[in-house]
């Protein structure tokens, strides 16, 4: 869902699903994200879980190491960069 959100209905749809369902499945989601090699998936998941859903977990905190400044870092990979961003996750909140 986070590596290629366009294949799942777009990032807005992904965010809506996460807002409705992710809190009850947070432990399982975190376990699955941990398995991904993609730093961008970890950053997007970290942002959604920590800043949108306010889930606290040390594993999420560990994903902060993958945050890095750069104009290409976007929550929605298919939308243009937006100047609004997450300080913690260093990602453009372009939705």
Task: Set out the fold topology.
Elements: H1 11-22, H2 26-35, H3 39-52, H4 58-63, E1 85-86, E2 91-92
Antiparallel strand pairs: 1-2
Question: What fraction of the residues are assigned to beta strands by DSSP?
Answer: under 5%
Largest sheet: 2 strands, antiparallel
Can you write the helix and strand succession as a string? HHHHEE
How many distinct helices? 4
- The residue fraction in helices comes out at 40-55%
Question: Average pLDDT, to the nearest integer?
Answer: 94
* Count of the domains: 1
Low-confidence stretches: none
Secondary structure class reads: mainly alpha
First and last CA, distance: 15 Å
Number of strands: 2
Task: Note down, in words, how this protein is organized.
With 95 residues, the protein is mainly alpha-helical. The protein has one domain (5-92). 44% of the residues lie in helices and 4% in strands. The protein has 4 helices and 2 strands; from the N terminus they run ααααββ. A two-stranded antiparallel sheet has the order 1-2. It starts with 10 loop residues before the first helix and ends with a strand. The model has no long low-confidence stretch (mean pLDDT 94).
